[in-house]
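Margin note from the TA: students keep mixing up input and output lines. Inputs are the sequences; the output is the structure of the whole complex. Example:
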Amino acid sequence: MLDRRCDSVEKALEGIKDGSRIMVSGFGEAGRPNMLIKGLIDSGVKDIELVSNNAGAGYEGLAMLFRHKMVRKLYCSFPRGSMGAEVKKWVEEGGLEIEVMPQGTLAERIRAAGCGIPAFYTPTAYGTKLAEGKETRMFDGVGHVLETALKADVALVKAYKADRWGNLTYLNLARNFAPLMAMAATTSIVEADEIVELGALEPNIIVTPGICVDRLVTSRRIAENEWGTAA
Amino acid sequence: MLDRRCDSVEKALEGIKDGSRIMVSGFGEAGRPNMLIKGLIDSGVKDIELVSNNAGAGYEGLAMLFRHKMVRKLYCSFPRGSMGAEVKKWVEEGGLEIEVMPQGTLAERIRAAGCGIPAFYTPTAYGTKLAEGKETRMFDGVGHVLETALKADVALVKAYKADRWGNLTYLNLARNFAPLMAMAATTSIVEADEIVELGALEPNIIVTPGICVDRLVTSRRIAENEWGTAA
Amino acid sequence: MTPLTREGIAARLAQDISDGWHVNLGIGMPEQVANYLPEGRDILLHSENGILGMGPTPPEGQEDETLVNAGKKPITMLPGASIFDHALSFGLVRGGHLQLCVLGAYQVAENGDIANWSREDNDPIASVGGAMDLAVGAQRIWVTMQHNDKSGAPRILEHCTYPLTGVGCVKRIYTDLAVIDVTPEGFLVTEIIDGMTPKELQDRSGARLRFADGVGKLLDQTRAA
Amino acid sequence: MTPLTREGIAARLAQDISDGWHVNLGIGMPEQVANYLPEGRDILLHSENGILGMGPTPPEGQEDETLVNAGKKPITMLPGASIFDHALSFGLVRGGHLQLCVLGAYQVAENGDIANWSREDNDPIASVGGAMDLAVGAQRIWVTMQHNDKSGAPRILEHCTYPLTGVGCVKRIYTDLAVIDVTPEGFLVTEIIDGMTPKELQDRSGARLRFADGVGKLLDQTRAA
């Protein structure tokens, strides 16, 4: 019987190695898998290469991965934010490396990894400093940049409803990067608001087919005081 | 007021020029916009470059575009079929040119056109005769072929439900190429089983946002005897 | 001679958006355009994080954490809104489907170059977001900005000095002083605030301006809306 | 000595599909594998036209024109089925998400090359469908075919003579006479029908066969199912 449900967050996150590349879904707080992020912090994994549109904010959620110095490298489009000054300091101190890229390029690179496309040309960033050192090529007289697939060892993804095969739906703008990341990682781990009976999700409204998902847990909201303290 | 509905099939198809490249959604009969195909035949447009996974069958629907000698070139993955012998004859007589490509490459080339990606690398067909003459490149020791976006002047698309802004849903396996084609053509023309009030489609289940659609008509089943006769 | 307020710039630009357009409004001043869209037009707002048909800010207390815009501010959905993932969202952008994107800018050059994401070459947290995708992808880029920076330096230039966001993509600029088209022959002023002379505007600009026949008056439209 | 029927080949292969696998079955003999899937395993069938969780043929009169497989035959949906567009469908294929694809073949070479789409170099309507995508994309390619063609010529070869579908991708072959792994050292027979000697099988093959220690008996599993 195919059943991707796990009994605990610990089991869902089992086997994540130091140095792993980990994608985390979400745009701002919408679609952020906070329970899995908390589990990742508890696991003590180190030297993460994090793929996330931004770096988080405040003293909860994604931001705590940085405050606990768990992140070695960040692939993102928008490292600035309310935590900008601190992020800048961590980079200047040498503990954190950042690869900034346009948001659409980030999305398409992740999508490409999931779809078996190793590289593609995009007009985005041509002629700017984000294209420096990259291969370029003209198509129909317009400059384009060659971008490569961005895959990961692990994806942590927040979903709305799920079934035991791992079929997923998302709610509103919480969808954002989640379907792309679920498909682009070797091991995709999902927290869903609700796990429903097989067959309860209408086949036409499923956004991520279960084939993209490896492990599944029911989501729980992490309270402010559970995040602990860190730099 | 944004209202993409047209009063008639004639208006929906207005302005299609001889020599246009036209995409037609559908896989077998699932998702085939037969009312628009019939309208295209009635319009008498010539020298079409047709993009469709296959060539149709029998004496109705897509097949009639060929029987009426309206198609100059076909981009597809599977020209064989119940009409295979005739298709072969038309090619050998010189009236029809066929560019065969793998089905996934066809889909991805159309998707690329809609998404502003002029070219991408795929492992599909590497080392086969369908890659002959194409640019190739190794990624991680695996051979890949460079494929380019396939766009069109017009897309004829079948949908399930639509609203006046052109938001679309599809039913089951009738989805197939439709969302990709709607996005890849300069003018996308849709026949929908039902046109519902704005707001009646739940935002999370819309597959094609209205921005991809230009003209919209309510679908009507074309009876067998309406197709007329031709070679 | 009264320069437009930020709201005035946004309100003026809003008048030029046609019925049926799909529009992305950048973070900051461009967002305010949403408050001045002319009545009776269906204008669909796109946000990079995956929506078309974005509605106004919800009443306090009715915010939903799954309904936020690219600036992470709470939004609502209009009837007819649609939701999609980030790949499709930027497919729509890059694929040229949006009729308009309004961006803020530090600088615009006379060839249409725009600089709006970074003011230093080695900022370790320079943040581009979706600006470069929008710059190359939207059918037209309009810019809203103050005509001069806080020190009075011009932002309308022969060449941008800050790192570029996009090359040759800006079609029109709305400032507190003027509306300016970017044409193959350079900047063309089509509207100017009452009481300002062409020479005064030229003196506050860093590139040669041409003036359209019958330059119009740039009016405050905030009350009209 | 009774060679397996087409159904027998399909039934034998079906036994080797693990619980939880997502599987694409090619048109023709591979499709019949669906009729012999072992009880108690969740095996999700994929079809290129956009479904996972394909169910059996519907009863006559209950066909739905929106429910067809890649061979355009009527299907049903299992509880837990999901629908997606052609780009995502082939993204799943090309991206290596399917645990298995079963293809028919004209020829398989000892390096794993497969030829299954065209028997002449200049067929103007040579039709590839999704075979090349599946050949490069699935985690493993298993082939079902008759050991010899109608004229008795071998289809297991040192080199394919027909146009290739994929390079070096076949992992295992199920024929009416044997089950054969494709290994870095060439063909390795793991099962053979009762009463056939290794020499007889070798004589009907066009490349050198090796035989596993304790080669098993290839049994008819059609009744077991």
